[in-house]
Structure formats: C-alpha cells, structure tokens
Amino acid sequence: MKNSIIKQFGLINTIEGYSYLALLFIAMPMKYLLGFSMAVKVVGMTHGVLFIMFLTLGLMAWKQTRWSLNQTIVFFLASLIPFGTFFTKSKIASYENTSINSVK
Hints:
The chain has 4 helices and no strands. By secondary structure, the chain is mainly α.
C-alpha cells in the first residue's frame, strides 16, 4: 500500500534540505559578504515555512505509521544538520511502500 503522507514527507524533506542549503550557502554569504540582506529575509522566510511543513508532515507520518520515537527523532535531528535530510531520504523512501501497520 502506497502511503501518501510518507511520500509527502519525503518530498518536503528534500525540498526543506535544499532550502536550508540555499539559506546557509547562498543567502547568508550574500548578506554578510555583499551586504544584500534581502536575500536572507526571502530565503529565510521560505525555509521557515518549509520547516514548519516538514515538522507537521513528520508528526502526521509518525502518528499514522507508528514509527518508533527514535526514528522520528533521527529525522528531526537530520533536518538541523546541513545535508542531513539527504541522508534520511532513502530511509523515508523505504517506508513509502510499507503497510501502515507494519512500520515500527
């Protein structure tokens, strides 16, 4: 059974990861090296909205699939580390085709 919440969580995991990298490696250097502070405002707001979506979908997926608390914490902590979401991408994808009741 294809789980749409997990698929959505996997997609937002990837997009949020890219937005974090854009904030850290594009917008922040533009602000501090070039004095263009608007870059951080725009990219920062976008990343913030995506991060809230990531948390919301992560909690929905956790509730629906009954992932272990440890697995959920790993997904959250990975989102705080640059490039971290890309390491959890394959684990999330492995859950997409799993039955809701068999994920633990």
